[in-house]
Amino acid sequence: MAYQFLKYELADGVLTITLNRPDVYNALNDEITFELQDAWKAAAKDEAVRVVVLTGEGKAFCSGQDLKAGAGQKRSFLDSLHKRYNPIIRAMRNLPKPVICRLNGVAAGAGCSMALACDMIIASEEATLIEVFINIGLVPDSGSAYFLPRLVGMSKAFELCAMGNKVKAAEALELGLVSKVVSSAQLDEAVKVYTDYFSKAPTKAIGIIKKMLNKSATSTLDEMLDYEAYSQETAGSTHDHQEGVKAFLEKRKPVFLGK
User: Fold this and answer.
1) 79 and 172: one domain?
2) Residue 23: CA atoms inside 13 Å, Cβ hemisphere, count?
């Protein structure tokens, strides 16, 4: 697909979406947010997509909202979030496929929120995350106030949001914000380890797992027990479950089709 501010590249089941405004550290203007919405819709519809990698071109992952793009204009934050940012975060969390953040540099503001909305973050040693909103008298948005307390606890989440502390990759790993930290030279290979796995995994089951974990954040134990039973019934009717059982009985490696 052709976009002005995104690269959309699909190969062997792996879709790579690259924010492509490197001259402004991949800051988010109106156009790129609407392109992102379209890209996530396309990823959801395309059965050839088994796993998505989200990354940034150049030195940064995403520096957040492009403040220069709307300078001098009166903007409704409410409208901007409802029309531009919230649909992106919902699409990422509702996508029934794994999303890996290739965190190649700074992720600030809404860029940090997008990184946290991914299912996994593989970071370079030079990468940083920062809830920069407070530095211009704003509050976290685009899901950060949802994701952070669940990842690091209420006290640390408050500190990061209220003080705008820069979290370097090593600390992010200790806090549980990222899954793995490697050198910049090893970042692509580290991401490939995961994409190689997910591109051949039972995608339907992984999509259900993602939905279950989303639901667990606001559910009781009894509700989750019932939902697990429902979800298992759904997973049990997939082609990949049948293939998994058959491969086990035949003592061979399963060939999952993501169906």
Assistant:
1) yes
2) 3
**Sign of torsion over alpha carbons 141, 147, 149, 152:** negative
**Residue 216 pLDDT level (bands cut at 50, 70, 90):** very high
Determine the Cα–Cα distance for residues 54 and 19; give it in Å rounded to an integer. Answer: 8
pLDDT one-digit tens code per residue, 1-39: 789 999 999 999 999 999 999 999 999 999 999 999 999
**What pLDDT, on the 0 to 100 scale, is given for residue 70?**
65
pLDDT digits (tens, 9 = 90+) for 78-101: 888 889 999 999 999 999 999 999
- Between the alpha carbon of residue 60 and those of residues 3, 15, 65, 149, 203, the distances in Å are 19, 20, 13, 25, 30
The helix (run of H) or strand (run of E) holding residue 170 is helix 169-175
Structure token digits, residue 166? 């820069």
Residue 88 lies in a domain: yes
Give the domain range for residue 185: 6-198
> Using CB atoms within 10 A of its CB, is residue 217 exposed (0-12), middle (13-18) or buried (19+)?
exposed
Residue 1 belongs to a domain:
no
CA angle 28, 145, 42 (to 5 degrees): 45
Q: How far apart are the first and last CA of the chain?
A: 24
Residue 254 lies in a domain: no
